[in-house]
Amino acid sequence: MVGGYVVVTGGIALDLKARANAALVRGSSNRGTLTRCPGGVARNIAENLARLDTAVHLVGAVGDDPLGTELVEKTRAAGVTVVPVGRRELTGTYTAMLDEHGELVAGVADLAATEALAPDDLAVMLPLVAGAAMLVADANLPVSFLHNLVVRARDARVPVVLDPVSVPKAGRVAAVLDPRHPVLLVSPNRDELAALTGASTGSRSELVSAARRLCALGSENVWVRMGAEGSLLVPRAGDPVPLGAHQVKAVDVTGGGDAMLAGLVHRWLLGDPLAEAAAYGQAVAALTVTSDETVRPDLTPELVETQLARPVGRWR
């Protein structure tokens, strides 16, 4: 599959990121900084794709409020074709608490607008999906909406990539998988994989076993993202491919996984084998976590090529 446009759907939100200046003291006020920027898993993936010069349509729910207008305008300015749907609830927000190293301590997502998506909203998407080279959907979507979307994409022979988003929402992905009609890829982190399969993911052999179980549930490939440890690509047929992480000093990990998945999608559509596309995605993630923005504003294919030329650590 070479070229074409991608449809991305799911969460659109404002990111509010509170970062502590020193080690967090629980149950007490901590000194730190608060930043705000466009966010939401689907929106982040779409913006990364656009900055990598992949044509992309973002379909998602925003409120009929100033925040929704702001997010749509800023996302369009980054090169994304935005198709707002819903508009029955307030625009979503995601609040992240980061430690002094930029690592996520906890996050709270208020995505009522996305949760309120209904079958009538799905109708708006179907012509776009039918003509797409790929559909990327995140688990912020309601289960019934996500299920119908995956079925329609399958009927149109459009490859599907699913992002479980979080441990509490990962079950939505499991609910829409069908072993008779597998999706192209599911991309969980270690904890999400455990939630999806009910299996332990502590050791390398357990990771592979759990990923194989997820493949059997209805995915041709499982890409397990493990941050600074690297990632593991497990195809339904074939040997697992371990990928070492780029050795960088993280400033803010928010959006790293979204960038990673966007990088893979971008290169797979250009014809790269999936393992090479995954390695490219890791380079995009490395660049992203060294920025204090959820989506790195200076991201370009040239910048990624520079990162790819740097040493990569061994998979652990």
Task: Explain what this protein looks like in three dimensions.
With 316 residues, the protein is α/β, with parallel strands linked by helices. The protein has a single domain, classed as Ribokinase (UDP-N-acetylmuramoyl-L-alanine:D-glutamate ligase), CATH 3.40.1190.20. The chain is built from 11 helices and 13 strands. Helix 2 (66-77) links the parallel strand 4 and strand 5. The radius of gyration is 18 Å and the shape is globular. The two termini are 32 Å apart. The mean pLDDT is 92.
Q: Can you tag this structure with a few keywords?
A:
alpha/beta, four-stranded mixed β-sheet, 13 strands, 316 residues, 11 helices, UDP-N-acetylmuramoyl-L-alanine:D-glutamate ligase, nine-stranded mixed β-sheet
State the distance separating the first and last CA atoms. Answer: 32 Å
Portion of residues within helices:
25-40%
Remind me, CATH topology?
UDP-N-acetylmuramoyl-L-alanine:D-glutamate ligase
CATH architecture: 3-Layer(aba) Sandwich
Number of strands: 13
**Poorly predicted residue ranges:** none
What name goes with the CATH superfamily?
Ribokinase
Q: Give the class from helix and strand content and strand pairing.
A: alpha/beta
Radius of gyration: 18 Å
- Number of DSSP helices? 11
Overall number of structural domains:
1
Largest sheet: 9 strands, mixed
Give the percentage of residues in beta strands: 15-25%
